[in-house]
């Protein structure tokens, strides 16, 4: 990247490149690599009984659902993010939670599901680097949610991605919130 690009423009170019790589993965590879996350569930630094927010995969994202089921089996309560205007809130996810369409092929707990405060965010992302910086999808939903959650206490920020989504360097902007760690099909890596 050239130094003439702003951090936002540089991130946009990196996002486009990384998402093209991810999109080019064969579907069977995405499924197998998503399932491999479960093999590393015990490596995650989760406090006992933590409230864990996952995500419903869209497009060609890594699928967190098998990992979430494993974490539920290990005694963690689960929730999913829900868009409410420009903000994310988090609603309880149980086996009997009614899920409703939320756009982009995403499903989310309906309005009758209890709103919760997660201790851990398992977050989708476009790209990440070896310092724990991440490229989201450009709208800062998670950065804003993290800032809001941190007003009431710490929150672990763990990205979930395919290893091919790693880049050499992510430019950092003032609003960016770095990851605590990243989980790929190759395992968990802590930052900081």
UniProtKB/TrEMBL annotation:
- Tell me the GO molecular function terms: 5-formyltetrahydrofolate cyclo-ligase activity
Q: What class of enzyme is it?
A: ligase
Query: What is catalyzed by this enzyme?
Result: (6S)-5-formyl-5,6,7,8-tetrahydrofolate + ATP = (6R)-5,10-methenyltetrahydrofolate + ADP + phosphate
Tell me which Gene3D superfamilies the record gives.
NagB/RpiA/CoA transferase-like (3.40.50.10420)
Q: Known InterPro entries for this protein?
A: FTHF_cligase, FTHF_cligase-like_sf, NagB/RpiA_transferase-like
Q: Which UniProt keywords apply?
A: ATP-binding, Ligase, Magnesium, Metal-binding, Nucleotide-binding
Which Pfam families does UniProt cross-reference here?
5-FTHF_cyc-lig (PF01812)
Its family? Answer: Belongs to the 5-formyltetrahydrofolate cyclo-ligase family.
Q: What is this protein called?
A: 5-formyltetrahydrofolate cyclo-ligase
Q: Which organism is it from?
A: Roseibium sediminicola
């Amino acid at each position: 990247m050239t130094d003439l690009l702003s951090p936002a423009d540089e991130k946009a170019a990196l996002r486009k490149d990384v998402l093209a790589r991810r999109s080019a993965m064969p579907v069977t590879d995405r499924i197998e690599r998503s399932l491999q996350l479960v093999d590393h569930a015990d490596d995650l630094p989760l406090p006992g009984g933590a409230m864990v927010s996952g995500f419903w995969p869209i497009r060609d994202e890594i699928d967190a659902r098998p990992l979430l089921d494993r974490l539920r089996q290990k005694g963690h309560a689960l929730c999913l993010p829900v868009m409410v205007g420009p903000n994310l809130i988090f609603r309880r996810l149980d086996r009997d939670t009614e899920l409703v369409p939320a756009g982009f092929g995403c499903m989310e707990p309906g309005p009758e599901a209890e709103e919760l405060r997660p201790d851990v965010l398992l977050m989708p992302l476009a790209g990440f680097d070896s310092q724990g910086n991440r490229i989201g999808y450009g709208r800062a939903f998670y950065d804003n949610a993290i800032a809001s959650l941190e007003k009431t206490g710490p929150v672990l920020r763990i990205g979930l991605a395919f290893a091919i989504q790693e880049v050499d360097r992510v430019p950092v902007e003032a609003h960016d919130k770095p990851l605590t760690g990243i989980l790929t099909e190759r395992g968990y890596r802590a930052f900081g």
